[in-house]
Design goal:
Elements lengths: L1 E8 L11 E9 L7 E8 L9 E8 L5 E9 L17 E8 L5 E7 L29 E3 L1
Antiparallel strand pairs: 1-2, 1-8, 2-5, 3-4, 3-6, 6-7
């Protein structure tokens, strides 16, 4: 079993939308895991269209010894052309999942990828600019296993 201790967003607070998402994930492993844990980062831009969810990256971590462990996760940014125009200024989420031995994926950390209450800058065509996003840190204890 793994208990997530912290997920820190290590990209700059005012990262451009087209820059990689960088996280440091710290977790505690209660018993040794001989196989890999598969981690995935998924960007959800449209709550009405699951087919538009974007898997930004995945990685395998393992074997994992008992104790406190951490790793850096560096994922590509989402493709803005896959975000419907009506959802560009809407709520978005980044979901980190983990699975072990082909178990169902467990969502660990939804992140709001927009800046609530703050309008996105616009370019001179009047279209929203995908220049900046803001992602808070999550430090609640979460578990898989």
């Amino acid at each position: 079993m793994i208990a997530i201790r912290s997920i820190d967003f290590t990209s700059p607070a005012r990262a451009r939308f087209n820059e990689n998402y960088k996280f440091k994930i710290t977790f505690e492993c209660m018993s040794p895991l001989e196989d890999d844990v598969e981690w995935k980062l998924i960007f959800v831009s449209s709550p009405d269209h699951l087919d538009l969810d974007q898997e930004l990256d995945d990685c395998l971590v393992g074997p994992i010894p008992v104790g406190i462990n951490s790793f850096e996760f560096d994922a590509s940014p989402p493709d803005p052309t896959r975000i419907p125009d009506e959802d560009i200024l809407g709520v978005a989420a980044i979901i980190l999942t983990g699975s072990y031995k082909d178990q169902d994926q467990q969502p660990l950390s939804p992140y709001n990828a927009s800046m609530p209450g703050a309008p996105l800058p616009r370019d001179y065509s009047g279209q929203p600019s995908m220049s900046y996003s803001s992602v808070p840190n999550a430090n609640d204890s979460m578990a898989i296993g």
